[in-house]
Write a structure and sequence with these properties.
This protein is of the alpha+beta class. It folds into 2 domains: about 140 residues, no CATH class; about 120 residues. Helix content is about 60%, strand content about 15%. The strands form 2 sheets. Strands 1, 2, 3, 4, 5, 6, 7, 10 and 11 form a 9-stranded mixed sheet that branches. Strands 8-9 form a two-stranded antiparallel ribbon. Helix 8 runs antiparallel to helix 10 and helix 9 packs antiparallel against helix 10. The chain starts with a helix and ends with a helix.
Length: about 350
């Protein structure tokens, strides 16, 4: 999936290049919002870039951003150096990357969140550039952001290495009297988040496949005979009405016979009407029954998944406890053996 995203983005960039970097080029899809950005609260939406903004950045404001650098953007966003709240737009997020422009300065990427783009909701990249002064990173900007408690996430090793050049020791743990005094997400949180999301996606895929299977099974239990029954009943009702209408235009004797036949028809009609109603409501209620059946099965499937997780947890907990008991037993045995050896040596020395 990652490679497909990256390849599609690279092809879209090349198409835009072949189109003369046109301002009128359609919005370019970068990727699906990665776990790193979802971790700090961004929605799982596609990420888009506006070609007009890109042209403005590359041609006028920041020529150090090239097409080849842009192609590396998806991978860099999956593993950012830092993620911060915007200083100037409170509703925006800024990703600080290890990816550098052609002058060797680290790039930042501001995002407008949950915006309509390309006929759908998306997280939109509003710009891309290096935060620099005289060809060097503008460390003061990063430090101010951290002091103002705008930092949401940091890859601690990358952030520490980056800020060391500014004479700042990025702490490995929060300190009440240190540089970083509040809790942030880090790469360990990201690893846990990825595992949990992947486990959930796998579980939901299994449930979805089970529901689809149950849907196919349930559909086979509602045959087309119901529809045919309704069709035949409607034809019978129409023929009976025709018979009654014709009886009123015939002679008395013939009409009486036809009306008598229609009385018999009334009895058939009553029976047929009951059958038709049953068939009608069976068909009408079938979707509700199917939904109820599938909902129940879905809940059962979810319960089974959770139960399996719980069983696995209990099993591994018992295994750990058992192993712990074995270790303690072996440790006690070793202590006894050492004590016995010590006593034997002392007895010999006497």
């Amino acid at each position: 999936m990652k490679k497909l995203d990256d390849d599609a983005f690279a092809k879209d960039l090349e198409a835009w290049e072949n189109n003369g970097y046109s301002y009128g080029h359609p919005p370019i899809r970068v990727m699906q919002t990665p776990y790193s950005l979802q971790l700090i609260g961004m929605k799982d939406l596609p990420i888009y870039m506006d070609p007009s903004k890109l042209s403005e950045v590359m041609d006028q404001k920041h020529p150090e951003i090239t097409l080849e650098i842009l192609k590396q953007l998806p991978q860099a966003l999956r593993d950012p150096m830092m993620i911060l709240k915007s200083k100037t737009h409170s509703e925006r997020i800024v990703a600080s990357l290890s990816l550098k422009d052609t002058s060797g300065v680290e790039i930042i990427v501001p995002f407008a969140l949950d915006k309509p783009k390309a006929w759908k909701q998306a997280n939109v990249i509003t710009s891309i550039y290096a935060k620099e002064r005289n060809g060097r990173p503008r460390y003061s900007w990063y430090i101010d952001c951290i002091k103002e408690e705008l930092l949401l996430y940091a890859h601690r090793e990358k952030a520490a290495q980056f800020l060391t050049s500014a004479g700042v020791q990025f702490p490995m743990e929060e300190q009440t009297n240190g540089f970083l005094t509040y809790r942030i997400k880090d790469e360990n949180d990201l690893v846990k988040y990825k595992k949990e999301k992947e486990r959930l996606i796998s579980s939901m895929q299994g449930i979805r496949e089970r529901i689809e299977e149950l849907g196919r099974e349930t559909q086979s239990q509602f045959p087309e005979e119901f529809a045919r029954c309704l069709s035949v009943s409607e034809e019978f009702f129409a023929a009976l009405d025709d018979l009654r209408g014709e009886a009123t235009t015939q002679s008395h004797d013939i009409g009486d016979e036809m009306l008598a036949a229609s009385d018999i028809g009334d009895e058939m009609l009553a029976a047929s009407n009951t059958v038709a109603e049953e068939a009608y409501y069976s068909i009408k209620l079938a979707p509700t029954k199917v939904r109820t059946h599938l909902d129940r099965c879905a809940h059962d499937a979810v319960r089974d998944v959770l139960s399996a997780v719980a069983d696995s947890f209990v099993y591994h907990t018992m295994a750990v406890e058992h192993r712990h008991a074995e270790i303690l037993k072996a440790e006690n045995h070793t202590k006894d053996a050492v004590q016995e050896t010590k006593e034997q040596r002392e007895e010999k020395t006497r």
